[in-house]
Design a protein that fits this description.
Strand order of the largest sheet: 2-1-4-5-6-3-7
Number of helices: 12
Oligomer: single chain
Largest sheet: 7 strands, mixed
Strand content: 5-15%
Distance between the termini: 44 Å
Order of helices and strands: EEHHEHEHEHHHEEHHHHH
Number of strands: 7
Structural class: alpha/beta
Shape: elongated
Helix content: 40-55%
Length: about 300
């Protein structure tokens, strides 16, 4: 994997060991198969694109709320194709010319990823010299056509509602894939991957709650399953509780971003158990995350006091 660098070397190479595959993605089976077929056709289409007079490249837009699997999908694509990955952070790009040179220094058989394109277009992460026109030329300009052979471009957004349709027209973006919050089908895929469970007596209850309109992101559900992985029944009950109490509050607050070890902590604030008892709701995870931030802040203040005393 290659990451855009602000230093003299434009790309910094780091190992790419992401284990995601299409089989582990919480996505409709029919959609998975269509995407895999599309990618397989692309791999074999060099002469076809030449005959059409088109650059041998393909572009995808992945859009949906945070935590719905867009980044994991990119990793699954890279593993499926055995392609390298180039990650472009538009907020670190110095200008339109710099973006062009980044493209020139990519290699064939690679996926070029631009995450959170909607944030850049909204001005939240826009650099002083990089323009929307420069990004459009990066997507489908003459340089992209001449130097973008055997490459796949992937752009991610939380939403495309406020984006100029001209930016996402065919030719700039070939395939649009929506990543929604979890439904029952995606939940079953997660349960199979994280808990090794294909059927369970609690599944009808989960299905009914989803049918009533409750939902969480795949990231929130998977964290509950990881935390309670030693007991599938407890894990599913925790998801049920989360759907009933937190289903309308996704995206509020933080979700713990790492797997807890058995000896990390015995008891969190307000009696939230962090070891063998697992977590019952997404809020428990958020409380724990807040507990660690508070504890780290106290340690930091203590360290500063010691330094000042010295």
């Amino acid at each position: 994997m290659n990451v855009a660098s602000g230093s003299g070397t434009r790309w910094k190479s780091v190992p790419f060991n992401h284990p995601a595959t299409f089989e582990t993605m919480a996505m409709e089976l029919d959609l998975k198969n269509k995407i895999k077929s599309d990618l397989e056709l692309f791999l074999k289409a060099k002469q076809y694109y030449r005959r059409l007079g088109r650059a041998w490249k393909r572009s995808f837009l992945l859009y949906g709320p945070s935590g719905t699997g867009k980044s994991s999908f990119v990793a699954a694509m890279a593993n499926f194709l055995c392609y390298d990955v180039y990650d472009v952070d538009l907020s670190k790009v110095r200008g339109d010319s710099d973006l062009k040179f980044l493209l020139l220094e990519t290699t064939a058989k690679s996926i070029i990823v631009v995450e959170d394109l909607d944030r850049f277009l909204a001005g939240e992460s826009q650099s002083a010299s990089l323009t929307a026109s420069g990004v459009q030329n990066f997507m489908d300009g003459i340089l992209s056509s001449c130097c973008g052979e055997e490459r796949i471009m992937v752009f991610t957004m939380n939403s495309k509602e406020c984006i100029d349709p001209n930016l996402l027209r065919p030719g700039r973006v070939d395939v649009h894939i929506h990543f929604p919050v979890c439904d029952f089908s995606a939940f079953k895929t997660l349960a199979s991957s994280y808990l090794g469970v294909k059927e369970h007596k609690l599944f009808p209850q989960v299905e009914e709650i989803f049918r009533q309109g409750a939902s969480l992101s795949p990231a929130e559900i998977s964290e509950l399953m990881i935390a309670n992985r030693n007991s599938p029944s407890r894990a599913i009950k925790s998801v049920i509780g989360a759907l009933q109490t937190d289903g309308d509050g996704r995206g509020c607050g933080d979700v713990i971003g790492r797997q807890m070890g058995d000896d990390d902590v015995d008891e969190g604030p307000e009696g939230v158990l962090c070891g063998g008892e697992g977590f019952t709701t997404v809020k428990d995870l958020r409380k724990l995350y807040g507990f660690f931030r508070l504890r780290n802040a106290k340690r930091s203040r203590s360290s500063n006091c010691l330094v000042n005393e010295r």
